[in-house]
Design brief:
Number of strands: 13
Strand content: 35-45%
Number of helices: 3
Helix content: 10-25%
Distance between the termini: 32 Å
Number of domains: 2
InterPro entries: Restrct_endonuc-II-like (IPR011335), Restrct_endonuc_IV_Mrr (IPR007560)
Order of helices and strands: HEEEHEHEEEEEEEEE
CATH topology of the largest domain: Trna Endonuclease, Chain: A, domain 1
Keywords: Endonuclease, Hydrolase, Nuclease
Radius of gyration: 20 Å
Protein name: Restriction endonuclease
Structural class: alpha+beta
CATH architecture of the largest domain: 3-Layer(aba) Sandwich
Strand order of the largest sheet: 1-2-3-4-5
Shape: elongated
Largest sheet: 5 strands, mixed
GO molecular function, one term: DNA binding
Pfam family, one: Mrr_cat
Length: about 250
C-alpha cells in the first residue's frame, strides 16, 4: 500500500481514477483541484473536478466530494455540498462514501446531487506511488495523474508529387495531483514534459523524437470572465488543440 498518502487521500485518488475510466473522452478529470468561489471569493478545494476537455467552457462543471469515513452521509453533508456547488458554479455533484447515506440525505440530494458508494476494499490494489513524479521544481511529493490519451495526426505534404504522409502518435496527458502542473508523456520516446501555464515567456515544449507539434500551456478566460489553465497541442499546420484543462 502507498506510504506517501494518508488513506483518505488515497480514497480521493481512487475515486478520480475510477471516474477517468468511466467518463467520455471529451471530459477531463482533475484530482485535488482549487477553484476561487464566485460568492466567497476564496479558493475552494475540490476532491475531484470534472469539466469539458477541449473548450474554455465553465458552464458544465461537475464536482465530487469523496468522504472516506465510517458514518453515513447525512442531510447536513448534502446541504454543505450544495453550498460548495453554488459557490464554484457546479451544475452537478457526486457525494461518494464507503458507508452509504441516510434516507433523509437521499431525499435532500434530489436531481443536482448524486450519492454513490465505493467500498474501501477497492483500495487494496491501488497504489498512486507508482505514478510518475511531478516534474515541477519545488513540488516534492506530487504524482502525475493521467486523465487523457489524445492521438495527434498531421498530414505531411511532400514538395514533389508523391503521396502525403500521415504521422500519428498517442500521448498521455494529465496533471500533478498536488500542484496541478500539466504533464505530457510521449509514447514514442517516453519523454515526460511539464509545460507551465503561468509563464508568458514560455515558447513551448517538444519531446526528443521531434514530432511535427509542440506543447504549450496557458491561462484562458471564458465569456463570463472565469479563468482556466489549459494544455494545448500546437501542430505545425497551425492548428491548436486543447487537450486538457482545469478551472482556477
Amino acid at each position: 500500500m502507498n506510504q506517501e498518502m494518508p488513506e483518505w487521500k488515497l480514497y480521493e485518488r481512487l475515486v478520480a481514477r475510477m471516474l477517468v475510466e468511466q467518463l467520455e473522452t471529451d471530459l477531463c478529470v482533475t484530482p485535488n483541484a482549487y477553484i476561487v468561489g464566485r460568492i466567497t471569493g476564496v479558493p475552494r478545494q475540490i476532491d475531484v473536478l470534472i469539466e469539458t476537455r477541449h473548450d474554455t467552457d465553465n458552464s458544465r462543471r461537475i464536482i465530487v466530494d469523496a468522504k472516506k469515513r465510517s458514518r453515513k452521509i447525512d442531510v447536513k453533508d448534502v446541504e454543505s455540498f450544495r453550498g460548495l456547488m453554488e459557490d464554484v458554479g457546479a451544475t452537478h455533484g457526486y457525494l461518494v462514501s464507503p458507508a452509504g447515506y441516510t434516507k433523509a440525505a437521499g431525499k435532500r440530494a434530489q436531481a443536482a446531487v448524486s450519492i454513490r458508494i465505493v467500498p474501501l476494499d477497492r483500495l487494496e490494489d491501488f497504489d498512486p506511488s507508482t505514478w510518475p513524479r511531478c516534474q515541477r521544481e519545488g513540488c516534492k511529493h506530487g504524482r502525475v495523474f493521467w486523465d487523457g490519451y489524445p492521438e495527434l495526426t498531421v498530414v505531411l505534404r511532400p514538395l514533389d508529387d508523391s503521396e502525403p504522409v500521415h504521422q500519428s502518435s498517442v500521448h498521455y496527458v494529465g496533471k500533478c495531483d498536488r500542484c496541478g502542473r500539466f504533464h505530457v508523456r510521449c509514447l514514442v520516446c517516453n519523454d515526460i514534459l511539464a509545460p507551465p501555464e503561468d509563464d508568458e515567456d514560455d515558447c513551448g515544449h517538444q519531446c526528443s523524437c521531434r514530432p511535427p507539434w509542440f506543447w504549450l500551456a496557458s491561462i484562458e478566460e471564458d465569456e463570463d470572465g472565469h479563468d482556466s489553465a489549459e494544455l494545448h497541442a500546437c501542430l505545425m499546420t497551425g492548428r491548436v488543440i486543447t487537450v486538457d484543462r482545469r478551472s482556477l
